Amino acid sequence: MTKIRNFEDVNKVLHDFVPPSNHVAYNLKNMRALMDALGNPQDTYKTVHVAGTSGKTSTSYYIASLLKAAGKKVGLTVSPHLDEVNERVQINLTPLPEAEFCEELTEFLSILNKLSIKPSYFELLIAFAYWEFARQKVDYAVVEVGLGGLLDGTNIITNPQKVCVITDIGYDHVQKLGRTLPEITAQKAGIIQAQNAVIMHEQNEAVMQAVAKTVQAKHAQLIMVDKNEHLAFVSMPYFQRRNWQLAFAVYQYIASRDGLNNLDEAAIHASMRTIIPGRMEVVQLGASTLIMDGAHNEQKMRAFVASFGRAYPGKKAAILLSLKEDKEYQSVLPLLLPICSQLIITTFDIVQDLPVKSIKPSILAEAAQDLGFKNVLNHPVSVNIDGQTDDNSHYSPAQKDLTFGTGGVDDAEDAEIILHEYGHAIQDDQVPGFGASDEGGAMGEGFGDFLAASFFSDVKPKEMKPTLGNWDATFYSGDEPPNLRRLDSNKKYPKDLDPQGEVHNNGEIWSACLWELRAALGRKTTEQLVIAHHFLLSRNAGFEDGANALITADKNLNKGVNEKVIRDVFVRRGIFANPKRKNLRAGTPFEDVPVKKNQNESWSKRSSAGG
What we know:
- The chain folds into three domains: 41-96 and 137-272, UDP-N-acetylmuramoyl-L-alanine:D-glutamate ligase (3-Layer(aba) Sandwich), CATH 3.40.1190; 281-380, Mur ligase, C-terminal domain (Protein-Tyrosine Phosphatase, Chain A), CATH 3.90.190.20; 384-610, Orthogonal Bundle (Neutral Protease, domain 2), CATH 1.10.390.
- With 611 residues, the chain is of the alpha/beta class.
- It contains 20 helices and 21 strands.
- It is elongated, with a radius of gyration of 29 Å.
- 40% of the residues lie in helices and 13% in strands.
- Residues 582-601 and 606-611 have low confidence and may be disordered.
């Protein structure tokens, strides 16, 4: 077979193993045959098998962290992956490096190709993880269940030393697992094999009775987490304390059974700081805080909202939300209302273990508005990432989509280029057909530049703040720093209008005005005014119309307290007449500057001459 060289190759190969729909066989027939053919590597090392509804991934990471701290070599497999597929095969909490992952998967697939077994995407990656852990000679493997437990592809471990972990159980995947807690719990407890140790927190009576029934049938040992244990938790999300405490109980059992070292306080606290992707993961972007969490059912969302309230008491946040098609959004949305200042609804259509689509934004938006959410935004924009081969990008008002070029440095690799083009989509949504005039086209380009530069200004060095497209511009710019355009030019209207009417060049006049306003009024006020004033414009608006609309927007939002500042900026730039020079505009030349009509049907990052 063709050698796999990178993750792009991996994803192409694995795509052939994705079942065509969600209606696939849910049984272990394939996995048993496959693992038998591979020699059952999953039974050659000690394993910890983690099932449950909420907290599986987090608990798995914490267990792996504690075992690693004891000096053991630990394999970890979790699903689905968030960034790259190698998250499903980790050694000591580090995903296999790309080159090694590709080399090992190539060899694994060469073995698979000799068999008459066609596993699914999930089955293949679980089998690969089990096989790779044996090759890596791990001491322990921590295995997160994919779906349910009893019939899950991970459930082919027969080693009696397997430790079973049951996290909190609630309602999820009810179409496959059952619609009652006893039915769902029976599926989760299906991972319990003969003589296994089973460790869990005390849960409600229906859950405990179903687990006890399986434990008794399998002659297993049920161990409850000591709920009276008091530990000094370091900084961690509140809901993770329960998951970590369960993980620590698992470690204590294994340490006692296998003679592992007792961990000191420093090692224990270090394990509490384990970074778990997508579980109230906090990222600082300049002065802004971004929190990413994969909560998608009622139980998980309750935990997230409670933890958010403890970490940020009294605060509300702008929330970007999308939910999978089969998720019961009616029970999730109300939980977000108390902490939401603005709800932005987006969409996705991805393929991992199965093809997955999101609930239509219009459905979520309608439900959110019925519940009392304000400021609900639900206008997704389609994107063609490698839509053309030259170094150019554009938004198409007709198709309502963005296209990014691949020439030089891929445009979609530069976040400011993405935001610039998205600015056109915003403006077109606010004023359909905006930019029909020459000056309107320039205003569109200037707004896109301003949006991108303003958004990223807080995380850029001082000398780069009034520039944009720095990464993209490394391919063609000789400026220092490299940039696509600047927002701090001395251009004035109308003397510095481009003789050919090139909208990007003329857009630097408009973006310079907005950048001056940002310096005078601050980011938040200026961005609010800029977005609000678009609603006051017609598709044929020009520079002076835009300046007057900003003044009107300030009257609407701020009772006009910033009118003088706004007027001064546009007088300096020549867009408003200078009262000291009678009817002349600042910078007016003796002869009018001719402006050539721009014939482009779509807004673009730069002129075709720029690539």
